[in-house]
Specification:
Helix content: 40-55%
Order of helices and strands: HHEEEEEHHHHEEEHEHEHHHHHHHHHEEH
Distance between the termini: 93 Å
Number of helices: 18
Strand order of the largest sheet: 8-7-6-9-10
Strand content: 15-25%
Structural class: alpha+beta
Number of strands: 12
Shape: elongated
């Protein structure tokens, strides 16, 4: 055989070799099944006298490399106490028909972008690859992605930054997704919440589940948002002292939409300079230039700039190194994960709101997108950001005796109130 294969082309030799391997598999399985029959019944000419006895043979099929192979399987029966007999399933034959390898191959095909209708083309000789069977298999596998995402332990990481944004799945469903960055610069997908739109209640549901799962920030949280008031409102409710940084990419895009095309170049130059300066004073100078540039051009554009307020330069106000600006002055980190997510779920033409279909697909896509995450640029300077976010020593966030920190308005009211005095007029200590 080896001599003949040496005379043939590589493609012909490959066909012969694969057929030879399949024959070896069938022969090996026949020998293993025969050995199991001998163990159960004894040798053919000297039965062991037990309850099991040989019952001839019958045609059978096994799975090899996802394809069915015809074999002859021996049959064994067992005597029952009531005088009847029953079939004994050979463990070797059952193992040879285990579809786990085939199912794993189908799931890998689906993950790679093959639709349920096209699986039959990638596995033409495999059993059970019809569209309905593949769809049911994907439903069972999809819940594992949801569990993998929502069972991650959030209490072991030192969280510093959170980004929240929405991704539209259909006209009826929108998902609000949260990712976070640790003190070492690593990005993680936290969770998501489905709703009809990117509203405050959906954001509250997301943050509430994150709190229940153990998401805690040992310092003030830096949140990077795209300007959605619903996201900001919900975030401040759960993290009253959070520092919110407005995404400069979104803000530049909003202002550009209100300007004539001839002014776009100057606007881009000013925003590029704003992203590069370090420190609050330098950032305020650039904002002043932006105001002077927009004031004679368009009142709506100037109003859009003022709408951001101090959120526009929140990161620069912390006086951290400008190496962190590339990733923390915009929501590009979560937008990039959305782009990868759309690549995975783009072939889904309709999401059924009455089922958990969107939950399964989105969890799968986010888990796959997270595999490509890398540490942010300038991650070596993250300890300086963490130090800048430390709370003042006079501010307490939570203690078992006193409970959570009151809102900023309550703190201001308490500061203006007169100090409580004792009988002699002395200040009563806490």
């Amino acid at each position: 055989l080896l001599s003949d294969l040496g005379q043939a082309s590589s493609s012909e030799a490959g066909v012969v070799f694969r057929e030879y391997l399949r024959g070896c598999v069938r022969q090996m399985l026949s020998e293993v099944m025969a050995a199991e029959v001998t163990e159960l019944c004894g040798s053919k000419h000297a039965p062991n006298g037990g309850d099991c006895f040989r019952a001839g043979s019958s045609p059978g099929r096994i799975l090899h490399e996802g394809q069915r192979e015809e074999v002859v399987r021996p049959r064994v029966r067992r005597n029952r106490r009531d005088g009847s007999t029953e079939e004994v399933v050979l463990a070797t034959y059952e193992s040879a028909n285990n579809p786990d390898a085939l199912r794993a191959s189908i799931v890998n095909a689906l993950i790679s972008g093959v639709s349920t209708r096209e699986v039959r083309q990638t596995h033409p000789k495999s059993p059970g690859v019809g569209r309905s069977n593949v769809s049911r298999l994907w439903q069972s596998v999809g819940h594992k992605f949801v569990d993998a995402l929502r069972e991650k332990d959030l209490t072991t990481q030192d969280w510093v930054v959170m980004m929240i944004d929405g991704i539209r799945l259909s006209s009826e469903q929108t998902a609000v997704v949260a990712i976070a960055i640790t003190a070492t610069g690593e990005k993680h997908v936290l969770d998501f919440e489905l709703g009809s739109s990117e509203n405050t209640e959906v954001c509250r549901g997301l943050l509430r589940r994150l709190a229940q799962r153990g998401f805690r920030c040992a310092r003030r949280l830096l949140a990077v948002l795209d300007g959605s008031q619903a996201l900001r409102t919900a975030l401040v409710e759960f993290y009253p002292d959070a520092i919110v940084q407005r995404c400069l990419v979104h803000k530049e895009r909003n202002i550009r939409g209100r300007l004539s095309k001839k002014h776009w170049g100057e606007l881009a130059r000013l925003f590029k300079r704003l992203r590069g300066v370090q420190g609050r004073s330098a950032a305020e100078e650039v904002v002043a230039e932006l105001i002077a540039f927009l004031k004679p051009k368009n009142a709506e554009a100037l109003k859009s700039l003022h709408e951001a307020g101090d959120d526009l330069i929140a990161l620069q106000s912390l006086n951290v190194p400008s190496t962190l600006h590339r990733n923390l002055l915009s929501t590009n980190a979560i937008e990039n994960s959305f782009r990868n997510t759309r690549r995975k779920i783009g072939r889904v033409t309709r999401f059924r709101a009455e089922t958990d279909q969107a939950t399964r697909w989105l969890a799968f896509a986010l888990v796959e997108a997270e595999k490509g995450f890398r540490r942010i640029s300038g991650h070596r300077d993250m300890p300086q950001l963490a130090s800048a976010l430390e709370r003042p020593t006079a501010v307490r966030m939570e203690s078992p005796e006193r409970g959570p920190l009151p809102s900023p308005a309550a703190q201001a009211k308490a500061a203006k109130a007169p100090a409580a005095t004792g009988i002699e007029g002395e200040v009563v200590p806490e």
